[in-house]
Predict the 3D structure of the following.
Amino acid sequence: MNKEQESLLLNSSSRFLIPQGVKISYGTAGFREDASILSSTVYRVGILAALRSLQTQSVIGVMITASHNKVSDNGVKIADPNGGMLSQHWEPFADAIANAPSPQQLLQLINEFVEKEKIPFDGIRPAEILLGRDTRPSGDALLEAARQGVTSIAGAVASDMGILTTPQLHWMVRARNKGIKASEQDYFDQLSSSFRCLMDLIPTERSKFDGINGKLVVDGANGVGGAKLKILHKLLNDLDIEVRNSSEDEGVLNDGVGADFVQKEKVVPRGFGSKDAGIRCASLDGDADRLVYFYVPPETNAQIDLVDGDKILSLFALFIREQLSFLNEKEAIKNYHKARLGIVQTAYANGASTNYLKHLGLEVNFTPTGVKYLHEKAAEFDIGIYFEANGHGTILFSESFIEWLEVRSNELSSGSKGSEAEKAALRLLAVSKLINQAVGDALSGVLLVEVILRHMGWSIHKWNELYHDLPSRQLKVKVADRTTVVTANAETVVVRPPGLQEVINAETAKYTQGRCFVRPSGTEDVVRVYAEASTQEAADTLANSVAKLVDQFLGCNSS
Ligand SMILES: CC(=O)N[C@H]1[C@@H](OP(=O)(O)O)O[C@H](CO)[C@@H](O)[C@@H]1O
Ligand SMILES: [Mg+2]
């Protein structure tokens, strides 16, 4: 690094001193904290993004959001060249520079890292960073901090993309690096045109959606997703969508609203109630990368029937499987290409969903919690579908399978036009454009659910009947040091402290259909306990007993 660059960095970093006594770490979803202490962190992430852009010679994204956290929090995460999460290999460096106590130590760390990673740091090569933020009031100032971080690396350019959903920014980064049109309007155009294409391919006998089945009411978590969905909706004639709890309304972000609240509490979000009984409803989270559906059963006040990420996954899997079977009928003769379809879940997936998917003959894989793990696994298949129970997920198509599909759909359209196989190929191609290939996206997810329900001719009730969730309970236990819990086998088995897994096994064995695991959270200072059993009472008792065991082993009061 030359002297000019060094003084540029020293100068600008002295304007972003880190708060005393705060240690921050790049967790499951980037850095997240109270917004008031984040400006130095975001500034430094700006530097990190510029270095990543130099190293990969690609456009990198910086998203300022704290998703479903309360409005006074904020956070920052990096989108890598393919639109996915920052390479895990860089996370320790992110931690190190975020916590460097002084500008001099920051400079030293950067110098060491540049050397170790052989980052071409000559001030000549261009670096470009796309910056986006959600609707939080602290977002504007933090975006400026990120911009200053980026521009403290000579030659790096920051482009402010404005207020966006997290998946929109990831989509833009991916599109830019593929050399395709990447504006927000391009995003809306791609989603709306592929949605229309899927609507046009619905079998005519199934296309009648009537009355209550027609309308969808969406809870926008008082965040960015509601406003964006309204824009998207204007491009779609065929959907009857009402958006509530949009950022343009009065309510507070994530306060008694949103996918996280709805999934955890299983009650209606604000603005919903018995008047909505039977109507198909959906909830987005604060940055619109999670989606769950629900309906209000008749004669209840606040309780809902939740249609969670596992059921969205099952619906997608059924649809994709159907299209593959149409394609494969003919393929036995010509150009045979048997697509490998893989499902990826975490241990939090309801056991009934896993059984259901396995009964369909599908390959189900498990990874640790966190989208970066699920995404990585799903990318190993021709078509990989991943979802967390909380509604974060997407469908990935391999490049080679897309190429094969394109060739095949051309052949089919010249040979057997209008055949089921041709339609199936066109549907799969449309799904690959509708569903966000970079990261889980509640907006594209809503559109895909809506079109598949029409394709199947199903109400939300029919969909919910695919299988019945096993009763489950999730608890949090505060412990002295959660890092003393070490797990294996996709977090289903405790390896340390010794003896804990044995007592969990002994407890679980007492319950019919009992399943229970514990793991340290990656986003909160707690150990999470998850239990399933044949009745709600049994699931509750199992979770409580295991929470007590965790407390005994790790010594602190449970909550
Ligand atoms: C049980 C659960 O819902 N865990 C969430 C939560 O992670 P934890 O590591 O469990 O705190 O936040 C993650 C980031 O948003 C999300 O990916 C994950 O699914
Ligand atoms: Mg989110």
DSSP finds 19 helices and 19 strands in the chain.
